[in-house]
Amino acid sequence: MKKSVLLGALTVAGLAAGAAAAGTIDDVKARGKLNCGVTTGLVGFAAPDSNGEWKGFDVALCRAVAAAVLGDGNAVEFVPTTGKTRFTALASGEVDMLARNTTWTFSRDVDLKFEFVGVNYYDGQGFMVPKALGVSSAKELDGATVCIQTGTTTELNLADFFRANNISYEPVPIETNAEAQQQYLAGACDVYTTDASGLAATRATFEAPGDHVLLPEIISKEPLGPLVRHGDNEWADVVRWTLNALISAEEYGITSANIDEMSAGTNNPEINRILGTEGTLGEMLGLDNQWAMRAIKVGGNFGEVFAQNIGESTPIGLARGLNAQWTEGGLLYSPPFR
Amino acid sequence: MSDIGFVRTEMLPEREPPASTVGALGWARANLFSNWFNSILTLASLYAIYAILAAILPWVFSPTWNGASLNNCREILTAAGSVGDHGTSGACWGVIRERWIQLLFGFYPSELYWRPVLAFILLGVALAPVLFSDNVPSKMLIFSALYPFIFPWLLWGGTIWGPIAALAGFVLGWVVYSAVSKTMSSLMGIVLGAVAALVWWLLLSSYFTGALNSILPIGIEVVESRKFGGFMLSITIGVVAIACSLPLGIVLALGRQSDLMIVKYICVGFIEFIRGVPLITLLFVASTLLNIFMPPGTNFDIILRVLIMVTLFAAAYMAEVIRGGLAALPRGQYEGADSLGLNYWQAQRLVIMPQALKISIPGIVSTFIGVFKDTTLVSIIGLLDPLGLSNAIRADANWNGVVWELYGFIALLFFIFCFGMSRYSMYLERKLHTGHR
């Protein structure tokens, strides 16, 4: 009896939550602020600077969505979430969207009832070893001690990889990236494994980065992307097409420098449709026609955001790799704006 | 008879004690080198202290105060010549120079820093008559009573009518209580007073606040809880939990000893439940579970939720500490109070509590210190307390890889607060040490 009452209450709460979630875009407009869930700090992806201003690759996406919906890239309330609190924060409506280097997986999409609206960074799990170890492939790591963050998918990926290759390893469990850096540098483990972007960022902080190499094997697919709640398709569309607008803008050469010039009208109809000088794409989204222009203007197109936060000119120094446009051998492929 | 020279007629002047038994030398001889074993231990300890300091001090005194990033620090250290086997050795204090304000205030708007500063200075003023009752005029207690309303107003801002309305609730409750208890029983007075206050707070005060605010809008800028961070957050949580848990703990301790069965079992159940659950579980309940159970759209402030949970947690421990004090009181004290014809509350106020609390001081202060340090657990639910901020600071590409400097700075600040509390408790024990050995 008690159980059924509790379940009933849960159902009612769930239904009510679903009902309220139906109009996220209206909620955001009424509030005048976008609540965007970000990490509590990941190099290059999201971090507050000394003035408390959030910066980073994921943060830029939040700002673009805020600019598209509210017209102001600063109308964002950044809600720091940890790996443990992120999904409940989104499910309960505390945040409108998550842009928190979250891997798109089947169970998160289907079972946890979220909607991944795209991929803003294709990552994968890699290995870093000291050059002195003389290893050139992860398959030579038989018997190695491996620093690994507990309770993450990387742990499972690692076990899978070593089992598939029939070699053994000794895990050194660690809790945070900072701890991993210290342990690895102190020689507590031969190998450090985590997402390749994280490895690059970690290596960049070493005193002698050249003494460490990233092995060529990438043992997992980690498509990181923004996500929203299931069942609110209008809002999911807004976030999805804001991301696509940034990607398309790079493809068609729209940059924050030339966007004013281009928004006067060009002879490329696709650009005109994105920037709102032709067609009524904005209205279909429930926004005005300048939405994409504002989104691109706030931090530049995808390539500019990438270069500014994690690209080769930054200390993190990530190459575009898989994250290049499809025209340049990458995976970024935005559906047409039409 | 006149030449018996060995009979002294005056005292010899007092001589100085031998140089080897007084002063630093004598102290060292008595305490450090009293026998061969102690001498060896002393020398070994001195060597250990030297080795530790020789390793730490050059690291601490490194000329990197103006470093702009970790790499910049390394350049400065290389230029200064402190390069060891494993690269440069020395702290990178630039991160503290750039971020210390953030570590103290979090994201609080910088033009409003005076508000938390003033709030904490006034906290000292409000605590003075409570903590140092000998040296401060007791009229200051009026300010102490008003302070719980000033404190949130200064930190969160908003209209001044909010705290006034909250205060009015207490006044209303008191008026109803005194009116009813004169005409009817005092139990009815308590119940009706509480009901009146609750009705006021829950139903009427928002209209009152709104109406007065539209007539006379006095207020200061609102600062959202999201902007709270760093030590400000730790101290806010710590102070509120400490201040609320003591009275709550006393009530729970008394309730646990009560003869009224329902009261007793409610108190026992509460204490045992809260003590049986780790604080981090309660924090997860506060941050995630409550969110799901609340009707959507309710904006129940995350810091308020955390405050309530930490307070409840501290109160359960406090109740057991105070119960220890109550149990240590001889039975005669209770009987003596009864034989004087004091009623229950008079006996508690005049006889039992002053003695029980005095016995419990070390335990109470330990609990306070523990609660204050436990506030760092909020970093796990995504609040940016000093530890959470240290992670966020490391996520800045400039400072990625800086570990010891940040933790050292945070540890130093925590140490100052906790050490201060512990010294105060020792002062209080000495002051109250009036018999009862």
UniProtKB/TrEMBL annotation, chain A:
Cited Gene3D superfamilies: Periplasmic binding protein-like II (3.40.190.10)
Solute-binding protein family 3/N-terminal domain ranges (all copies): 33-262
Pfam families: SBP_bac_3 (PF00497)
Entry keyword Transmembrane helix: no
Keywords: Signal, Transport
Signal peptide segment: 1-21
Annotated SMART domains: PBPb (SM00062)
Keyword set includes Transit peptide: no
Transmembrane regions: none
Record family assignment: Belongs to the bacterial solute-binding protein 3 family.
Name this polypeptide is given: Amino acid ABC transporter substrate-binding protein
Organism: Ruegeria aquimaris
UniProtKB/TrEMBL annotation, chain B:
Subcellular localization: Cell inner membrane; Cell membrane
TM stretches of this protein: 36-61, 113-133, 140-156, 162-180, 187-208, 228-254, 266-290, 302-322, 359-384, 404-422
Keyword Transport assigned: yes
Membrane topology: Multi-pass membrane protein
InterPro entries noted in UniProt: AA_ABC_transptr_permease_3TM, ArtM/GltK/GlnP/TcyL/YhdX-like, MetI-like, MetI-like_sf
CDD domains assigned: TM_PBP2
Keyword check for Phosphoprotein: no
Keywords: Cell membrane, Membrane, Transmembrane, Transmembrane helix, Transport
Principal location class: membrane
Domain ABC transmembrane type-1: start-end pairs: 231-425
Family: Belongs to the binding-protein-dependent transport system permease family. HisMQ subfamily.
Protein name per Swiss-Prot or TrEMBL: Amino acid ABC transporter permease
Organism expressing this protein natively: Ruegeria aquimaris
